[in-house]
Amino acid sequence: MNDPRSRIPGLDRLLLDEGARAFLAQFPRPRVADALRAAVASAREALARDEWPHDPADPSPYLDEAGRRLEAESRPSLRGVINATGVVLHTNLGRAPLAVEARVAMARAAEGYSNLEFDLDAGGRGSRYEHCRDLLRECTGAEDAVVVNNCAAALVVVVNALAAGRGVVVSRGELVEIGGGFRIPEMLTRAGAALLEVGSTNRTRLRDYRAAFEGGGEVGAILKVHRSNFRIRGFTESVEIEALATLASERGVPLVHDVGSGLLVEPATLGLPDEPTPARSLARGAGLAVFSGDKLLGGPQAGLVVGRSHLVERVRRNPLCRAMRVDKATLAALEATLRLYREPETVRDRVPVLRMLTRSADELEGAAEDLATRLRLLPGIGPVSVEASVGRVGGGTFPDHELPAWVVRLTPAAGGVDALAARLRTGVRPVVARVENGALLLDPRTVGPDEVDALVGAVGEALDGAGQG
What we know:
The protein has helices at residues 11-15, 18-24, 29-48, 60-74, 100-110, 133-140, 151-163, 184-190, 206-212, 241-251, 278-283, 309-317, 319-323, 328-340, 347-350, 352-357, 361-375, 417-425, 452-468; strands at 82-83, 87-89, 118-119, 124-125, 144-148, 167-171, 177-179, 182-183, 194-198, 219-225, 255-260, 288-292, 303-307, 384-394, 397-410, 431-432, 434-436, 439-442. Helix content is 40%, strand content 18%. It contains 19 helices and 18 strands.
């Protein structure tokens, strides 16, 4: 009878408590009961270890724990995050944030029925591939275009449509790994083509490509892959698109260029090093160009195939194209994003990725100073300073290019920097920041103007959690 666990209130008693009634107004009774059972079970284990700091008869701790469990269960798995890392195309955080116009278009498409595959003029079946085709043609100079669900899918369906059962000629220096452990050679073979490697890692010449046609096997396509996520310097040589296009024409095979990031404006206008664009690739002779929609283009995740009409038509008719097709919300967001490129004077301000990449050092310093001023008002903040730093483009693009940056440096007064970073990640509005040299760095480049209040509030909550700990 001296066992403190015997004093724990029964489940019926807990369910009648005022706090439980508040839960029952929000959640089904079985869920509330399960949360209370779990809270009681946890308390029993703590009491057995003599580690329960509360009166076993007091219902409040069980109700508090049940409330935390119910809140955690109700929290969506996919949540909005404030990116304070300064990495613009952060793959782990969803890459490109969408423009307002794209978000509105997605919501509108999701509200009800749409003309996804219905021709309103003819009153009969239409095609989902029509919705972004004209805009992609306008933005790239292509004859035709098709959209699938990502750039890797675009490459697979293109290779399968053009070269299944035959060889694809590609330089050894372009057999890249694109992320997640996936590699170009594996993708080509899974697409049904034979890999015909030519040249060496650092030097491939036109004669190497020519030799691939003399090997006796049937060649279905020449593939050039832009090495967007690494650089080779020094004793190097590669073959330009124009020369490959001439060879492809001579041999009667298509030239496919995996451009990668999908930049639709000239990189120099963004202060970035040279980068191939789909328009430039096609103008120089590529039959098809494939690229991403969610990187430097600034739209939703998508794989875009543009180029000559007879080649695009073969891709569109390939069964894999249906397996890799995109939904109405993605098409709506992509269309809205592409429309912004019709106004070159304003596109950099309206597409978030382009806006982040072109923020000036003075603007970023001012934003960092303003953020630091607000953070210094928080209780228990510790030293706060503003310092020069560097940011990254991210997303496997411009791997060695540093963006000039100004960051807010926090050294927490209590609890340690790693604990503070963890509390920020697990808060009501998660914040992902950088931890360097014993301090937390907040980079305003990737924090939207409408996120600053939430960022300051999240830091305050994290510091409050440290104080309670």
